[in-house]
UniProtKB/TrEMBL annotation:
It comes from Algoriphagus aquaeductus. The chain crosses the membrane at residues 12-35, 55-83, 90-109, 129-148. The lineage of its organism: Bacteria, Pseudomonadati, Bacteroidota, Cytophagia, Cytophagales. This is Thiosulfate dehydrogenase [quinone] large subunit. The keyword Nucleus does not apply. It is found in: Membrane. It holds the Pfam family DoxX. Keywords: Membrane, Transmembrane, Transmembrane helix.
Amino acid sequence: MTQTSPLTSTQTGVLVLLRLLIGWHFLYEGVIKLYSPGWTAKGYLLSATYMESFFHWLASESMISTIDTLNIAALLFVGAALILGFKTQLASLIGVGLLLLYYFAHPPFPGYPLGPAEGSYWIINKNLIEAAALLVVFLFPTSVSFGLERFFAKRSLSSQTH
């Protein structure tokens, strides 16, 4: 069994850049929704073209307020965590979950109507690509190299040596 070599500083830098860009995207989406008083996911959920009964249930009067709040909170948490480099693995998994929900509400599957999109897609769209990128961020965490977790890692190491 061969041992893999650690990432080079260039590779780490590129992964940090990926983490920061995705973090900015999530944070911006959360802030925009938070400060748009009329925003709700209801229309998006009701227009779902796949697994309609599940997404219509999420859009129901008894659920939509909670769903809107959870969506905004998750976007803000994922964005802030990725940018700050704190709890990035947890944030990555939550981000993947959100993106997969967005993907399956309006998947670009053959035979299904296209939902709201900025282009033409077939099977693969931006949500799926960003989810895959978050899996890379999860598998290759960079927050100990560049992020708040670096300070906690140093503090943990120094307390173990004393």
